[in-house]
Every structure is written in structure tokens, then in C-alpha cells.
Design a protein that fits this description.
Helices cover 58% and strands 17% of the residues. With 378 residues, it is an alpha+beta fold. It folds into two domains: 259 residues, no CATH class; 89 residues, no CATH class. A hairpin with a 2-residue loop joins strand 3 and strand 4. The radius of gyration is 32 Å and the shape is elongated.
Length: 378
């Protein structure tokens, strides 16, 4: 019996991106953006409260608050990206199990390889992008925050003066009070108290203003009185003035970048254990995206009658265990307890084994033994 098939029946090839791939990628991307934005807002809000406390104390200027918030958001977003990816994959695949979509995929001949293929169409480019974010953008943002904090510390003694409020600087050694500030930034009814090594100086003036001159920044007081001396002694000096200028001394201190703000190139050239550990921390961020996605596929399996939240709770436990082990590994590398090579491979290798065990549990050990024996028999 002969059949005449159309000549074109063998020319149809499978598209590189299938409908299933598009569905999984879009679902994971939408869920990732939602989860990522929520956890970043929560963590950044807590960090921004500490920055606001510094602003209230005069350590941070109001002009740099939004810039510091933006830089802190960039840093936190990069650090929390692996957790967001892990939770997004667990939620999407758990929903697919719950709604019998995984059963439909399996009935069509699809397995874990099909799911991994769809996921890594999104995860692989994302991890490559994260390499640049973690190695370049994150230290740049850390360095930017340090520069802003250092600049604000240089001028901390002239910031935060507001009408009707006592403003303390230098741990209470300098106190300002201004009754009114007009639209031209001129201060009226000014009181200043300054202490230094037992010396006390008090200035009462009708007005005051800040002036930038070629020789520096000055506070100029108008029509007032100046009292100087040591408390407890009767040798106070009392002076009246029509105009009195005080130069605002700028604090001179070197900008010392923390290790998190060092460039990745400097860390790569360094032989110090602490620098090697910091470089490994940056490299672990994109690697953890790949590793946690590998773990999420077998971990997401749930019964159609069950809920997805049990696996998410286990996912949280695995993620925090992984994060704590990474920090312990970095501490050991810093202290010289283990070498940098062991620190780089140890935790990731351990969780690769855990992922393999979870994947074997998903298919069942008898099935794996059967496949293995079949291949050996050949």
C-alpha cells in the first residue's frame, strides 16, 4: 500500500519560540515585575527612614535626599533580583500545576526540559544583564552615595537652619536659633551658641546671612552683641557690633570608599582575602538567578488539590539558607579559613546537588533507574 504524502510535509520545522514559551515567559515577567517592585519598595522604605533620620540631624542635606533614594533603590533592586526571580518562577509554575496546565504539557510530551527551555529564554538574558548591574552599576551607586554623604558631612554645620527651631550641630557644641527667614534667605533675630574645649561664645544679632566670598563661606551678623569666655570665670568679654563676620570652616577629611564601592577591576587585581570575598559576592548575584531557577522547577510541583503557598514557604526557607551559607562562605574566605576557589564552588555545588535530588524526586527514582539501565544496556 502506497500513500502519496504532500512533498512539503517534512519541511515544517518547529518555531524557535513556541506558544508555550511565550506564555511562560510573559507570565514570569509580569509576576517578576510585581514581586520585585513590592519587595524593593518595602526594603528601600526601611532604609530611607534611616536616611531621613540623618537628614533631621543635619548630616544629610535636603537637596541630596532624592538622589540618595534613587541610588539606594538601584542597589537594593540588584541585590533582591534573585529572590524576586525565584518567587516569580515558583508562583507561575505552581499556578500551572494548580490549573492542570502542567498536565496538559505532559500529555503533549513536554517535560522539565520544555519548562527549562521556556524559562531560560528569559532568565539567561536577565542573568547576563545582571552581570553588568552587579559588577559595574552597583559599586558605582555605592560610590555615589559615599560621595554625597562625605560632601554633606563637610558642610553639616551650616545645614538645617529653620525658623522657630533650635538646630544642633557638632554633637551639641554649636546651636542655632532663628526667629524668621525671609524670601531672600536672610535670617532675623539670630541666636548662636558655640562651645569648644570649655570656651563659650554667644552671639545675639538682629539679622544674619550667608555669603560666599573668594576666601570661603561666611556668616555675617548685623547689629548684635557677642559674649565670650569660660563658664565659672568672671572674665567674659562683651562686644557690640554693627556687622560681624565668621568664616564657616569646612571639615577636611579624606573620602575613604568602603569595599562595596570599589570597582570590580580593583577587586580583581587585589590579592586581599576581603576583596576576593567581595568580588565573589557580586558574581554570586547573577549565578544565583540561574541556580535558583534550576531549583524552582522541581520545587514548584504541587498537587492540583493542594495550594501553592506550601512550596513558596519551602522556597523562602531554601533561599534564606542559600543566602546565609553564601555569607558564611564569604566570611570564611575573608578570614582565610577557606580558599577563594572553595568559597566560589562550595555553596553553589551543594545547591546544584540539591536541585538534582529534587529533579530526580520529580520524575521518580524507578523511572531514572530504568532510563539509566536502558542506556547502559545499549
Amino acid at each position: 500500500m502506497q500513500t502519496n504524502w504532500p512533498k512539503e510535509h517534512n519541511t515544517v520545522s518547529r518555531p524557535f519560540v513556541t506558544v508555550l514559551d511565550k506564555m511562560i515567559v510573559l507570565d514570569v515577567l509580569k509576576t517578576l515585575l510585581s514581586v520585585w517592585s513590592v519587595i524593593v519598595v518595602i526594603i528601600v522604605s526601611r532604609a530611607f527612614i534611616r536616611i531621613l533620620d540623618k537628614a533631621v540631624e543635619g548630616q544629610v542635606s535636603n537637596e541630596t535626599l532624592l538622589t540618595m533614594l534613587a541610588l539606594k533603590t538601584v542597589i537594593t533592586s540588584i541585590e533582591l533580583l534573585p529572590a524576586a526571580v525565584f518567587m516569580a518562577v515558583l508562583m507561575v509554575l505552581g499556578r500551572m500545576y494548580k490549573e492542570h496546565e502542567m498536565a496538559a504539557v505532559a500529555s503533549a510530551g513536554g517535560g522539565s526540559g520544555t519548562i527549562y527551555r521556556a524559562l531560560f529564554l528569559l532568565i539567561l538574558p536577565l542573568s547576563l544583564l545582571t552581570v553588568g548591574l552587579s559588577l559595574v552599576v552597583s559599586p558605582w551607586a555605592e560610590a555615589g552615595m559615599e560621595k554625597l554623604l562625605h560632601r554633606d558631612k563637610q558642610s553639616a554645620d551650616i545645614r538645617g537652619i529653620s525658623a522657630g527651631k533650635f538646630s544642633e550641630y557638632s554633637h551639641g557644641d554649636l546651636v542655632f536659633y532663628v526667629e524668621h527667614i525671609d524670601a531672600n534667605k536672610k535670617m532675623h533675630k539670630v541666636f548662636v551658641q558655640q562651645k569648644s574645649k570649655g570656651y563659650l561664645g554667644i552671639i545675639n544679632a538682629e539679622a544674619g546671612r550667608l555669603v560666599d566670598l573668594p576666601t570661603g563661606r561666611y556668616m555675617i551678623f548685623e547689629h548684635g552683641e557677642r559674649v565670650q569666655g569660660f563658664p565659672g570665670k568672671l572674665d567674659y568679654v562683651i562686644e557690640s557690633f554693627d556687622e560681624y563676620a565668621v568664616q564657616i570652616e569646612e571639615k577636611s577629611s579624606l573620602l575613604d570608599f568602603p569595599r562595596e564601592a570599589m570597582t570590580s577591576g580593583d577587586l580583581w587585581r587585589s590579592m586581599a582575602s576581603a576583596d576576593i570575598a567581595e568580588l565573589q559576592r557580586r558574581c554570586f548575584i547573577p549565578l544565583s538567578i540561574l541556580l535558583l531557577t534550576f531549583l524552582a522547577v522541581p520545587l514548584a510541583q504541587v498537587s492540583p488539590r493542594g495550594g501553592i503557598y506550601g512550596n513558596i514557604a519551602i522556597g523562602f526557607l531554601i533561599y534564606f539558607t542559600y543566602g546565609n551559607l553564601v555569607r558564611v562562605s564569604q566570611a570564611w574566605v575573608t578570614n582565610g579559613t577557606i580558599t577563594g576557589a572553595v568559597g566560589a564552588v562550595g555553596v553553589n555545588g551543594l545547591f546544584l546537588i540539591v536541585g538534582g535530588i529534587l529533579l530526580a524526586r520529580l520524575y521518580g527514582w524507578p523511572w531514572l533507574m530504568l532510563k539509566f539501565s536502558h542506556k547502559v544496556g545499549r
